Amino acid sequence: MAELVAPPAGWWAGRLGEPRTAVLGSVDGRGRPHAAAVWYLWRDGEAHIVTGRGSQKHRNLARNGRATLTWLDDWRYLTAEGQVAIEPLRFEDRFALWAHYRGEAVAREETAKGGHEGMVLVRLRPARWWGQW
């Protein structure tokens, strides 16, 4: 296992921006771990994650202010840990996430249904990294 204080170079650096499912880790109000698969966008050194307002993820992150995000690729893994900021979700951010994973046609269809008003944008800024690569 290697530990870094900056984003990884080389093999992982090019993969953070790819449409991959990652695992978001948080801690609930009783101190128990909570993990959930999420889609994300990698922007300006942050992972942007969308979740429902009031969801378990949202409540955990609002209470604790920290999270981990883990990417898996065959035998390799990379985990980032850091502080989170939570803000209202804009339509444009939801559209960008859908387009990144499923293409613009599906993004138009999904976002036309509305619903972003009941969601939040979580921005995870990694302070520490570790993994196997």
TrEMBL record:
<dbReference type="Pfam" id="PF01243">
    <property type="entry name" value="PNPOx_N"/>
</dbReference>
<keyword id="KW-0560">Oxidoreductase</keyword>
<protein>
    <submittedName>
        <fullName>Pyridoxamine 5'-phosphate oxidase family protein</fullName>
    </submittedName>
</protein>
<feature type="domain" description="Pyridoxamine 5'-phosphate oxidase N-terminal">
    <location>
        <begin position="16"/>
        <end position="131"/>
    </location>
</feature>
<dbReference type="InterPro" id="IPR012349">
    <property type="entry name" value="Split_barrel_FMN-bd"/>
</dbReference>
<dbReference type="InterPro" id="IPR052019">
    <property type="entry name" value="F420H2_bilvrd_red/Heme_oxyg"/>
</dbReference>
<dbReference type="InterPro" id="IPR011576">
    <property type="entry name" value="Pyridox_Oxase_N"/>
</dbReference>
